[in-house]
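To close the chapter, one final illustration. This time we ask the reader to focus less on the individual chains and more on the assembly as a whole: which components sit near each other, and how the overall shape emerges from the parts.
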Amino acid sequence: MDLRRELQRAHDAARPTLATGRVADYIPALGAADPNAFGLALATVDGEVHGVGDWQTDFSIQSVSKLFTLALALATGEAVWHRVGREPSGTPFNSLVQLETEHGIPRNPFINAGAVVVTDRLLTLTGDAAGAVREFLRAESGNPRLDTDLVVAASEAEHGHRNAALAHFIASYGNLENPVEAVLGHYYAHCAITASCRDLALAGLFLARHGVRRNGGRLLSRSEAKRINAVLLTCGTYDAAGEFAYRVGLPGKSGVGGGILAVVPGRGTLCAWGPALDRAGNSVGAVAALDAFTTATGWSIF
Amino acid sequence: MDLRRELQRAHDAARPTLATGRVADYIPALGAADPNAFGLALATVDGEVHGVGDWQTDFSIQSVSKLFTLALALATGEAVWHRVGREPSGTPFNSLVQLETEHGIPRNPFINAGAVVVTDRLLTLTGDAAGAVREFLRAESGNPRLDTDLVVAASEAEHGHRNAALAHFIASYGNLENPVEAVLGHYYAHCAITASCRDLALAGLFLARHGVRRNGGRLLSRSEAKRINAVLLTCGTYDAAGEFAYRVGLPGKSGVGGGILAVVPGRGTLCAWGPALDRAGNSVGAVAALDAFTTATGWSIF
Amino acid sequence: MDLRRELQRAHDAARPTLATGRVADYIPALGAADPNAFGLALATVDGEVHGVGDWQTDFSIQSVSKLFTLALALATGEAVWHRVGREPSGTPFNSLVQLETEHGIPRNPFINAGAVVVTDRLLTLTGDAAGAVREFLRAESGNPRLDTDLVVAASEAEHGHRNAALAHFIASYGNLENPVEAVLGHYYAHCAITASCRDLALAGLFLARHGVRRNGGRLLSRSEAKRINAVLLTCGTYDAAGEFAYRVGLPGKSGVGGGILAVVPGRGTLCAWGPALDRAGNSVGAVAALDAFTTATGWSIF
Amino acid sequence: MDLRRELQRAHDAARPTLATGRVADYIPALGAADPNAFGLALATVDGEVHGVGDWQTDFSIQSVSKLFTLALALATGEAVWHRVGREPSGTPFNSLVQLETEHGIPRNPFINAGAVVVTDRLLTLTGDAAGAVREFLRAESGNPRLDTDLVVAASEAEHGHRNAALAHFIASYGNLENPVEAVLGHYYAHCAITASCRDLALAGLFLARHGVRRNGGRLLSRSEAKRINAVLLTCGTYDAAGEFAYRVGLPGKSGVGGGILAVVPGRGTLCAWGPALDRAGNSVGAVAALDAFTTATGWSIF
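The assembled structure is written out below.
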C-alpha cells in the first residue's frame, strides 16, 4: 500500500467539504483562522512521517491537549479515575447538566469538566500542568519551539465564563485540589499550545506503540495505553463520538482549533487539521479525510 | 379576633415541630444558630406590631433579602423582566440545569440565579445594591442599626463556589452587566444582613399596603405590588412553593437563615423565624406557625 | 361597581387579541373551532349570573375537567395526595421527563400525568369517573343536557399516543390501580365534555363558596376548598402558572378547548372562552379578559 | 496461543465474581435463572468452536437480539438511520427523557427505544420481524430448534408498561410505521428467543467475517459490518459502554438474560453467559471473563 498516495487521496476527498463548516469564533483569536487551510500527516511506528497540504502549519491544538494531560496524569497511577468517569456523556462538551445530577464527577476526561479535573490532578502531581504537557509534546515531536500562544490563552481566560462556571461548580462538590484560578490558568495554557499536524502525529505515537515513548522509555503500561485508546474512541470527539467511530473507526481526539489526532493501534497515527467545524465542533475536513483514508486502507480497528 | 392570642397559639403550635428540622450548615457562620430559637411577629397596615418568642432577636435574613432587591429594582421600571422569568422552576434553588436549557435566563427572581441577575440590575441602577437594600430596610423598620454581618458575608464568599458557578454561567450567556465579582459581593452582602422578625415584618408592609412605604410615599404602583405578591406565592419558597401555598395560603419569602416573611394583602405581614429547616430549605417552625395562624384566622388569600 | 359593564369592557379588551392565537389542532375535532368565538361569564356567590359574547355556546372543556376530578376525588379523603404532588412542574403539561426522575409520582394533579392518576383514583372510588364528573357538572350548572362529545373523545383516543405513553409509564411505577385502557377511557370522556361559560362558572362556584354546593350541601371542608384554590393558582395553567398569577391574580384552570375557569374566593367565578391559544396552551382571549377584569375591579387575591 | 486454555482461565477468573451480581427479576420468568450458571464460548472465522462451563445451556438472549435485528434491517439499506441515531445515550437503557428532548428519534439502536424502532422497520421489511431473527439465528448457528420462549415473551408483555410507554411515545412523534401492539409483540418475541453461548457465538461470526454469512453469502458490505461493530462498541452495553470498552476493548452486545456476545474483528466471536448482573444490567461474570480473556490474549481492538 502506498501510504503517500492514500494520504493525498484523503486530502483531495476532504478539500471540497471545507466550505460546509464554520470556523470557531467564541474567542477572537480563533476566529481569525483560515477556513480553507487543510493539512494531513501520518506517522508510523516504524518511523515514517508523511504529510500533505498544510501539515507543517501551526494551529491551536485546543482540546487535543486533553489526550496528553490524561496520559501524563495516568502515568503516575490510576487515582484520577476516582474523580472522573469513563462514559460518553451524551451531552455537549461544555454542559453543566450532568455534573449536577452526578454530583461533580464529570462523565469522562475529554468533556471540558473532565479535562478541568485532570488538569487539576496533573497540577498537583507536577506543580506545572501546562509545562508538563508542553515538555512532553516537545520531546515526542522533536520540536523545541512548540509553545503556548499567550494571546490565545489570554483570550480564552477573558471569554471563559463558561469554563469558570464549570470549575467553580466542580469545586462546590469538593472535586478540585487546587484553586479554581490556578487550574483554569493551566487549562487555558495547555489548550492554547500551537503545534502542526506533523508535531501532533509524532507526539501521539506513544499510543500506537502501546505506551512506549520516542526515546524507548515507557510512559504507560500496554494495558493502560489500550485503555486510553478505548476512552478516546467512546468519548474523544464530543457528542459525536458514535458518529466518528461509525465513519472513521479509530480512537481520536478533536479540538475546536480544527485538529483531530487519531490512533491506529500498532501502526501509527494520523493528524488532520482544518479550522472549519461541523455543528458538533469537529473539523469537517479532518473527519472527511480520516473517513476516506480508513475506508481506502481498511485501517479501521473494526 | 384577638390577634395577640392567635400569634401565641401559632407560636405554641410551632414549637414542638422544631426538633424535626436541621440548621443550615453550608457555611460555618450559619451552622452556629440555635435550633430551638423561634419567634413570630405581626405588623398590620393600621400600625399595630405584635410579637411572641424570639421576635426581636437578629438573624441572617439570607434569601428574604431577594424580595427587597426585586422590589427596589422594579421601582424604577420593568426592564428586569427581560432578563429573568416569573415561572416556578420546579428545581432546587441553586440548580444550574434549567439555566442551560433556557440560555441564561433564570426562571424567576427568587432562585439564586434569578437573584443574582436582579442584584446585577440593582447594582447598575444604584451603584450600591447591598447599600440600597440596607437603607430601605432601615427606613421601613425604623431600625438604624440594621446592617450586613461581615463575617457571614465573608463566609458565604469563601464557600460560594456554587454561586460563583451560577454567576459565571449567567455571564457566559451575556446576562450580567457588571463584573461577576462585584455582583457576587453585593449578593452576599444583602443576603448577610441581620434583622429581627419585627424589623422584617415592618419592612414588608409596603406589599400589604399595595406599594406604599412607611412614610406614605409610593415605591410601587398598586398593580406592581400585587404582582410581586403573585411571584412570591408561586416562587417564594424554593421548590416547595406549591406546598407553602397549599398549607399557608399567603405570598411569602423564606431564607436559609430560618426566616419567612409572609404578606396578607390589605391587612399586614407576618414574619416567623426558626433556624431548623426542612428538606426544601424552609424553616420548619415558621411554616408550622404560619399554617396554624392562617388556619385559625382564615387569613389565607384563598 | 357595575359588574355587567366591567364584563363588557373585559370582553371588548380581549377581542382584538384573538388574532394572535392559534386553535389547537392536535385532534381534528378541536381544530374545527372558530378562532373568533369569544365569551365571558360571571357567577357570584349571591346568585347573580351575567355573560357577554358567546357565553352560552358549548365548547370542549378539556383540562378544565381536571379541577372537578380533583375535587370529587378529594371529597372522599386525601389519599390521592400520596400518589400525586402539589408542586408546579416547570415543564410542559405532557412531559414525561419529571415522571422518570420522580419515579412515577406526577408533580401535580393538573398536568396530564397527574390528572391520569386522579382519574384512576376517582374510577376506583366511583366505578365511573367520567360519569361522576358529568353528574356533578349537571347538578351544579342546572344543565341536564351537558354531556361528553363522543366524537371528540374518540378522536382523543385515536390520537392519544402521548397520553398512552404517560399512563403506561405511570403504571410501570405501580401508580395505577385500574387497567391503562379503562383509565384513559374515562380520562378522554371527562375531557371531552362540552359545556358553556355559563355552565362552568356555575359549576365552579363551590370553590368560591369554600366547599359548599349549589344545594347547600358541603362537598369539601372550607380548608380543603381553599387548598384546591392554592393548587389551582400554582399549577392550574400549565407551565404559565406564574405568568397567569402575575397578570390575573386568581386561581384558575385552563383547557386546550380555550376555556379558563377562575375563582374569586368568597365572591364568585369567572369563565372565559376563546379557542385561539397562546404558546403555553392557554386561551389568548380568556387570559386577556381576566387580566382586564381583575385590573379594573381589583378582584385579584393579592 | 492455546485458545482452549485461555478460555478455561477466563472462565476460572470469572467464576468468583458471580456472587457480586443479581439476577434480573423484573419479570418472573427471568428471575428463576441460576445465579451460579456460567458459560463461555469462542468461535473463530476458521471454523473452530470451543467452550467451557455452561456454554451449551440455553438462556434468554434478550437484548443480544437487537444486534441481529439491526443487521437484518441494514441488510436491505440504510434507511433506518433516518429514524434512529448512532450516539451513546448517556442514560439508562429504558429512559424516556432523551426521547422527549430529541423528538422521538432514539439515540441509538441498542437502547430499548431504538430497538423498538428497528423492530418496526424490520417488521415493515419482512412482515415477521421476530421470525426473521429466529430464522437467521437458526441458519447461522445450525441449531434448528432455537426458538422464542413463549412463556418469557408473554411475561414481558404482561410486565411491559415501560416498553409500552416508550413505543406509544415514539408513535406520538410519528416514528412508528406499524401499530404499537404489533411492534411490541415482535420486540418481545425476538428478545425472548433462547439460545446457548455456542449458538450466539456462531450466529455473530458474520460480524467477525465483515459481513459474510456461514454459507458464504454476504449479508452486509464490509464497510457496513465494520460500522455495526463501531455502534456495538460505543452503544452495545447500555450506559456502561465506556467501561466495557475500557475493560474489554471489543464490540459487544449484552442482554439482561446475562449473555454478552463480543466480536473480535477478523478473528472470531466470544459469547459469555451468567445471569448475575451488575448495576448497569450487564452480566458480572461475562464482563469479567471477557476482560480476563482479552487481557491475556491481547485480542482487544485497541
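The mean pLDDT of chain B is 95. The radius of gyration of chain B is 17 Å. With these observations in hand, you are ready for the problems at the end of the chapter.
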